[in-house]
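TEACHING EXERCISE
Course module: macromolecular assemblies
Task: Read the component lines below, then compare them to the predicted structure of the full complex.
Student: A.B.
Group: 4
Components provided:
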Amino acid sequence: MSQPAIWDNSHDQPGHRAPLVLGDDSFGAITQRVATIVEKPKPPRWWTVTFSISLAFTVVLLAMLAYLFTVGVGVWGLNVPVAWGFDITNFVFWVGIGHAGTLISAILFLFRQKWRTSINRFAEGMTIFAVICAGIFPAIHTGRPWFDYWLFPYPNQMQMWPNFRSPLMWDVFAVSTYFTVSLMFWYVGMLPDLATLRDRAQTKLRQLVYGILALGWRGSARHWHRYERVYLLLAALATPLVLSVHSVVSFDFAVSQLPGWHATIFPPYFVAGAIFSGFAMVLTLLIPIRKAFHLEELVTTRHLDNMAKILLATGLMVGYAYGIEFFTAWYSGNHFEAFTFYNRALGPYSWAYWIMVFCNVVVPQMFWFKKARTTPWILLVGSLFVNVGMWFERFVIVVTSLSRDFLPGNWGIYKPTWVELLTLAGSFGLFLTLFLLFLRFLPMVAMAEVKSVVPQAGLERGPHRGHGQYWGEIPHQHEEILGGEGREQR
Amino acid sequence: MTALVELMLDRRSLGEVGSKLARAAAFFGFACVAFASVGAWLWEPWRQRFFPAYLTAFAWVLSLTLGTLFFVVLQHLVRAGWSVVIRRLAEFFAAQAPLLAVLALPLLLGLHDLYHWTHPEVVAEDPVLLGKKPYLNVPFFLLRLAFYFLFWSWAGRFYYRASVAQDESGDVGLTERMQKRAAPAMLVYALTVTFAAFDLLMSLDPHWYSTIFGVYYFAGAVVAAFALLISAGVLVQRAGYLRRTITREHYHDLGKLLFAFVVFWAYIAFSQFMLIWYGNIPEETSWILRRTADGYGVIGLVLLFGHFIVPFAVLLPRSIKRSPGTLLYPALWLLLMHYVDLYWLVMPEFGAATPHLVDIVLFFGLGALWLSGAARLASRHALAPQKDPRLVESLTFENA
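Instructor-supplied answer key:
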């Protein structure tokens, strides 16, 4: 590691693309850097400490679930009129977190954003674990969770069939499809790296486990050819899923007739919010881990800069949706609609509303400034604010609309019980437990993909050019294309 | 480098042909509008139809400029390299906002025919419209329109001017300035397009509201913009210009983006329709009901198939996106479908779905006038940036 000046690749000079990863690492050095994290016989001390704490919270989660199942939903603070509280808030929060991974791996892949190679594995892993946490909440909020399997359409002796008009059903399909495809994408993308770990294994056990997981990958040209085709196809399949999952989640609210829930902008607004919160979580986890594992040359300042820009853009989209909702509530001329938004801003939950506005709209404005985008600790603090703000956004949506609906006689206030608070804390425990296990046992940076964008990938080697310069001089390309219609030249 | 040398010999400017085209289009467009105006002056049915048809055609040409403006600003926002060779065509189209402001003037004569809420006696008896009066009133409406057009004109002209200035100077600082202004411009763009859609189209039914409406208009405009860029690129190349500058790689990307926004449009349209259908609240469903009755249901189905399902299937194969001669047809088709979409938004407020000659005359009239503005710019400047710092990247770009 030489002087920090060359670590800054966030500058941009039109006509010259900045390098995507830094340092003079050879291919082997990249493997070494990433694989040794997994191969060290003992994990670093901070890992053991955080893992123990996370595991303790996971136990808390299990205890809370056991308590809930034995006593019933009454242990939560839910009651008429607020029948959804922390459960659905947490569900939407965690599903939202689970959006960054697939956005980075699928949409940025289709957009040829090659900087994503340093962070996609990490973000995809986070996606999987967030979706696991999310899946718990709708399952346990049903009251009698042991009947949850009724949600699956299977031929049965009860002559029952799920009601496909219910958004709860749509959630089952949307989230399980998303989880399946995300898992596939994550796993398929990991195959070459798993084979690397297999080949480097020092113990019989590691060799066996990574060998099985690598599915016999030998790195032949045919393997690579099929791998890249599958990767492109999975990216194309995952891209609509990024939009569909959170759109379906938004339908849970928007198909109702409740003011504050029934808004046509909900699907794209929720998707923007999900990407916003997902990127915030990626940053929250990535910034400390990048430092702890000395990955600054792979996850560069430019990566932070880019992610902060996405944070700003999606934050502005969310702010746009807040504004349009507020305007339309007035413009609609509907008293209930207008009251709901008045109540959000000035009613009993106004503190939550203003936390949301401050964290999601005000704080990200600092990312207009490059200093804030490229200074890790500022970015970390900003991303923490966004995490908090996005949780409160879901809380505001879920609770305020329910607590004060059309008839003042129906109004009520919801307060979470200690069980709900500990369940939320426990879900973070589960998330971090899984995440730390991932860091310990799987390659957290896509080694094979990063190697394709390093300077050494060879400027002279046809389409595999490094430094993010994916273009090159192809003389035969400039023949007249309108003569011979539709025939491929290559 | 041989290819680059050949590129230097490429015919790049429309020159005299452009001015001829601009004159012919202006003459034709003016004749069409004059014909429709005289017709409206003479016959009552034409008079009733004139302003709705004018608004539909106007919203169509406006979205072509707004969609291409989005494209231009976006390319600078993300510092795109691949798109440089087609950006100039978009800049010509995006710079038409001043012309559109002039074309908007006739609408002012028809405010009473178009917008219910401009009648004080109607508003006085309607508590809902009375409540909206602080927003829906003529002076504020005009003030807002003026602001929108000022901003669009500024943005379109700025990007066009800076880009052609770079053709002469090759100044990299111009690119930096364009990039710097892209983010704030995009922010104001989002707000102006949203509220313009609310004002011009949504307030045709002043009781109805939909929070997604601005996004819906935007999505259609971007579909139209990509369709337009593909069409313009192919037609310009067929006429013998830029033949070695724009390659099938660029069409492939434009085709992908067209495909993506066709799906995005359908997603937004579905979100709006499904949520209103499911909620089934009378004050919202009335708008949909009017668009499924009196023959508009058929147009709705035409949109479902013609604006989504068929283009989805046609644009899916790689080979079609990589063959410009074929890609031209879905692109032209989607340009037409975008007009049908706007027709479906506007016309149900003004009676049954009977196609009218005025619709067609004004569609061609405003389209030609708008085209003449773009052709005039194309006659003066190169059809692709000459000294953009990312030009080489764009010329040699391939879909790796």
